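Write out structure tokens for Aminopeptidase RNPEPL1 isoform X1.
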Amino acid sequence: MAAQCCCRQAPGAEAAPVRPPPEPPPALDVASASSAQLFRLRHLQLGLELRPEARELAGCLVLELCALRPAPRALVLDAHPALRLHSAAFRRAPAAAETPCAFAFPAPGPGTTPPPPLPAFPEAPGAEPACCPLAFRVDPFTDYGSSLTVTLPPELQAHQPFQVILRYTSTDAPAIWWLDPELTYGCAKPFVFTQGHSVCNRSFFPCFDTPAVKCTYSAVVKAPSGVQVLMSATRSSYLEQEGVFHFHMEHPVPAYLVALVAGDLKPADIGPRSRVWAEPCLLPTATSKLSGAVEQWLSAAERLYGPYMWGRYDIVFLPPSFPIVAMENPCLTFIISSILESDEFLVIDVIHEVAHSWFGNAVTNATWEEMWLSEGLATYAQRRITTETYGAAFTCLETAFRLDALHRQMKLLGEDSPVSKLQVKLEPGVNPSHLMNLFTYEKGYCFVYYLSQLCGDPQRFDDFLRAYVEKYKFTSVVAQDLLDSFLSFFPELKEQSVDCRAGLEFERWLNATGPPLAEPDLSQGSSLTRPVEALFQLWTAEPLDQAAASASAIDISKWRTFQTALFLDRLLDGSPLPQEVVMSLSKCYSSLLDSMNAEIRIRWLQIVVRNDYYPDLHRVRRFLESQMSRMYTIPLYEDLCTGALKSFALDVFYQTQGRLHPNLRRAIQQILSQGLGASTEPASEPSSELGRAAADTDSDAQALLLGDEAPSSAISLRDVNVSA
């Protein structure tokens, strides 16, 4: 029998209500304990109170949900042992005229002043209670989180909106970094920031901590007087009261992109939709380096990939304790202040975060096993923006520098390392942060570049990426979504079966270990890379006197930062060098390099350490005494503890540990304790190069820096006056 058309009905019959099909369940994420596949998260509200003296955050979280199936027994959220849950409650979804929730925070801990009472949930006279309590329990999940199971009422219907309200406090949370005033530049006020990538925000608030789930959010934050509060959202300044800040994010974002920073921060406009926030002493430098530039980069990105979707693009410069270089939080990029002295690195890092506004924030990888979908595409977009803004030669130089680092990392890990795949298998219990490496960025970039070459025209590929963003914006995707869209956009390539070309199959790109199957043509950058290669060849030529004389005639003070960094990286790759070569290098360059930015200085000092060149060791000490950043301390301590300079490392650490964040102190303790227990023979392949390469990415340091205690060793570190 022929099926009846859906627009017809039998006479007298009443049309059945049409319910939209349920959204497909999110991709299974082994890093999440949550039951995200059983619910639709519509919105979350956060009420937060910052208590810096107790290093405690008090929270009231309202999750607006609906079940995708009838009568779910429980809601399971990702949580963390640092979270202490005080209560859980259920509430029917409020009508439009009702107040959704008034926040009441848990009482502060001993020794702190309680906040003024806040109103409770509204109740109509004679109506049923607005909230009913729910039972809950917390169970172990992995070493980076717990599972929170909240029992739900049995009569809950599918697609019926409801709220779950959780009140909690968070202390010693991996996501929340409390800084005493002396760890800031101004040394005036305490500072706090959050860092959620990859799976840390489950210690900030209970959540579906998976990139497969996105929702809008709003927040109210109560802070001490005189402290500015910013979040990765729009701040409603017209609602602002003294010490109370209101925020709203109108577009769906994953949990890891909810971010907060509070401290002695001042703003300065740098464009029509951008401002920088920084401590007062840093604000003039930050403003002068970025004024006008960010709008130029945003406009270039919009020409390539479509309108910027997030309203404002602001940047906040964080103290040196920030554990990574930069983080692409929507509306508000977090970036480490230390990068301000390295202009070219600053430009590249900010442009990379700008690119994430389209690739990573708008369109997100659905699982941590495919982070290249965010990082590889953002790296490609970053280089298209720099090409449009600064020319192909500069872009090729920066690409050559990064690909050099990729091959250095591959040499350390081995070509058969499973983490060199684009589609990495995440085993249960493994922290996804461990998967972050240069393959995610640079091998991912090479694959995206290869796709652009298949279509024969970068502008046509830009058009494809623009359509891809428009199709998938505010959702999470898997690799097949990207590749299917690519072949649909270019049907002629699909007919040619480009996905199955021998040796370059798409499946092989995704699942083969080792280097990229193809790398970009960087010949347009040869005017900048040839001098670097020529100088390196001179220093490795014979006889040394003649080579040194020829090399000294080349004035590297006029080079770009990436040229000098690439040259020093090549020397690092060749270390240990003959002592007479190191002496000549020091005579020729040491004083000059000592006057350059930190990205240059740390590379020269690594050469000094790897070659046990004692005459320049005082420069290493001075550098470590002035640095509080992970990216400028960890590589040197790793090198010092690999060779014969462990006692020197201990002495420097003893003198400087009081100025380091406790998490960084523990990380260095771990390096020192491993070094003390190791052989005194220099390693042929020191591990610091891997650490240095990782420090050049924007979201890969958490695994080392989230407060793991130093392992036990035969020699106790108590003699070094280590304190937590």
